[in-house]
Amino acid sequence: MSEKKQKISRTDLEWREQLTPDEYRICREKGTERAFTGEYYNNQQEGNYLCKCCGEKLFNSQHKYDSGSGWPSFWQPESMAVIDEHHDHTHGMVRVEITCSNCDAHLGHVFTDGPQPTGQRYCVNSASLVFEKDKA
Questions:
Q1: Which CATH class is domain 12-133?
Q2: Cis peptide bond prior to 72, omega within 30° of 0
Q3: 27, 100, 103, 123: which one is catalytic?
Q4: What are phi and psi of 55, to 5 degrees?
Q5: 53 has which bridge partners?
Q6: What percent of the chain has pLDDT over 90?
């Protein structure tokens, strides 16, 4: 049985030094980038999407699809162990927030209107991600 990793913990100042103001607002204050403005919403390259805050591998391009929402969307994460889900009742809505299980970075939300085989749509802010292109 593998040991659970120690969760990454930084001070507010350390996160502010590591991230741009927009990345900080999204990743640490649960913000959202405007639809169709993020760096990766239309990315077609093969590779992996890592957490902007800690580098944890979260999603693979093979699970990415165009949901029409304007945000990068995936029908499943790399593994369920890398994503934590939280009930979110902000802004008069009932949603499920997703965060990085390694550092608690806000990623976006998961919805049940995705494609098969999972029926899930992991709707993620580009600012929460770093893309690592597959090596040729």
A1: mainly beta
A2: no
A3: 123
A4: 85, 5
A5: none
A6: 85
Whole-model pTM?
0.92
One-letter amino acid identity for 117?
A: P
How far apart are the C-alpha atoms of 52 and 31, rounded to whole Å? 14
Q: Catalytic residue at 123?
A: yes
List 60's β-bridge partners, or say none. Answer: 48
Going from the C-alpha of 101 to that of each of 12, 23, 50, 57, 83, the distances in angstroms are: 18, 18, 12, 11, 5
Q: pLDDT tens digit string along 68-97?
A: 999 999 999 999 999 999 988 877 877 899
5 vs 95, residue with greater confidence = 95
**Cα–Cα dist 79/94, whole Å:** 24
